[in-house]
Amino acid sequence: MRKQPRQARSRLMVDSLIDATALTIAEHGLGDATTARIAETAGISIGSLYQYFDGKEALYAALLDRIVAQLLALVDTRSATLAQQPLRTWVKDLLNDVWDYLEAENGLYLKVLRNWSQLDFMRGIDALEQKLLGVLSLYALQRAPVVSQADLPARIYILINSVLFTLVRYISQPSPLVSREALIAAFGEMVERELG
Q1: What are the backbone dihedrals phi and psi of residue 128, each rounded to the nearest 5 degrees, phi first?
Q2: How many CB atoms lie within 10 A of CB 99?
Q3: What is the pLDDT of residues 112-129, one digit of tens each?
Q4: Dihedral-angle region of residue 106 (phi above 0 means left; psi in -120 to 50 means alpha; beta otherwise)
Q5: Topology of 8-54 in CATH?
Q6: Rounded to an integer, what distance in angstroms lies between the CA atom of residue 113 and that of residue 108?
Q7: What is the pTM of this model?
Q8: In contact, 132 and 160? CB cutoff 8 Å
Q9: Residue 45 to residue 35: CA distance in whole angstroms
Q10: Which site among 44, 51, 59, 118 is 20 to 30 Å from 182 CA-CA?
Q11: Tell me: the pLDDT tens digits for 130-169?
């Protein structure tokens, strides 16, 4: 970001530009999400946009930061309930929360993330991986007698990345052969089988 917004009005403008970036990508696709179109969607001048963002890539990065921050917050919220429920249920609830977030506002963020391969989303994947590694490692370590410790880091790493990259692929190109519910149920069973 070129300039940090200090006043409430400036923060609202930056938020509206990020909102407009999501709307523009969802409506026109990433290739046609230009700064001019984003400024028009936000209802501000292109000059005002450039006061805060260097270009469309900076807007895309700010949008992805917002999405990842919300996904990390969902993990944090669900992590508070992990000790009180079966691991399978926790995984299913978390993934349903993620899907509900992505499908809100007519699937706005789902449409944005369908462009993940053209966006710099790997930074977000890395942040989610680290958060989930911490949560699931702590869960498994608290159940030391039940879970074999020898290959625990490798198993957790494989589980998390299997889920993350399968979800990203499914979001990008939904399979008519696998429903969202079946996919989430299979993830819950897989994680519980390995760690529960």
Answers
A1: -65, -40
A2: 17
A3: 988 887 888 888 999 999
A4: left
A5: Arc Repressor Mutant, subunit A (1.10.10)
A6: 9
A7: 0.89
A8: yes
A9: 10
A10: 118
A11: 999 999 988 888 875 555 667 888 889 999 999 999 998 8
